[in-house]
Structure formats: structure tokens, C-alpha cells
Amino acid sequence: MRHGKKFNHLSRKAAHRKAMLANMACSLIEHKRIKTTLAKAKALRVYVEPLITKSKDDTTHSRRIVFSYLKQKEAITELFGNVSAKVADRPGGYTRILKLSNRLGDNAQMAFIELVDYNEEYTTDKPKRKKARRAKSKKVETVAPAVEEAVVVEDDPATEAVAEEVKAEEVVTETPVDEQAPVVATETKEEADNSKEKEEKGE
Length: 203
Known about the structure:
By secondary structure, the chain is mainly alpha-helical. Helices cover 67% and strands 10% of the residues.
């Protein structure tokens, strides 16, 4: 009888299931996130989290116990090096499962399983974003009144009257200049006539 045995066999014999979970655990430690089916992800979480807890105590005994499960030296080096330093202050819950859409071939439910401390999108650094948004809103408030003042000045009738007076003054000042131009020309003609008379008298 199998009363009380609630774990998922994943349709495999015991040796095949253990080898598959060990391989998936090494891939998760190396890549920090893997994509698999939801059932395998849940089975992997139960398999790998006790090994991550063992890696916090970096002793020869702990390394030998973890090696009996994973059987890959590179994965154990990464686990007892970078990963154990990241999860040192976390009391469990090292992995996260994110559900995805179903697979096209057999319609199986897919999911991401990842190490929590290596996902930067879920960090709680939100105050910096709020400060940036507030600064932008203040800039908009300071610019808006200046635009309104400019519109009011353009629509003011007093300014239009002053502009018309300035144009009229410019027209008045320009007309005498045109009248003086022939005078200068006549003076030059008279001087030329006087010079001719002097030359005739001298002859």
C-alpha cells in the first residue's frame, strides 16, 4: 500500500526521477533560472532547497553530502561559493516559481523556477522611483504658470496699442530722410555750377 505517500513520481522509476532532479538542480544552480513544467518545478523545489540550506555550513562533511545528490563538481563549487553567500541571511524560501502559458505540443502547464536572490526585478528599491516621479511632476508645475503669463501678455489690448504707436513713429522718422536726399543732390549741382563760372571768368 502507498498510504500517505503524496509526492509526485513524475511517471518515472525512482532512479530516473532522482537523476533528472539532480540534473535540474545543477542547471538551476548554474543558470539561476530554468524553464520546465509546473509539476517538475514543484518537485525540484522540494529537492534543491535542503541542499542550499546545507551549503550555508561550508564543511567537508556538508560538501560530501551535497555531492552524493548532485554529483557535479562545478555545481557544488558554485553552490558553496556565490549562492551560499547570497542566501546567508535568508531563513529558507530560496526559490520562486512563476507560472507560464501551456506548452503547444501536449498542453502541459509551464513555469519558471529561479533563485530568489538573483532576480533584480523583484527587489524592493521602490523609493528611488517615487522620488524621480515627484521631481518630474514639480517641473511640470513650474513650467505651466510661465506659459499662461505669456498668453495673457499677447492677448492684452494695451500692448497692441503701444505696438501701433511705435510703428507710426517709425514711419514719421523715415519720411524726412527721403526729403533730405534731393537737397543734398541740389547742393552738389550748385557747387558744380559755381566751379564752372569761376573757370569761365578765369579764362
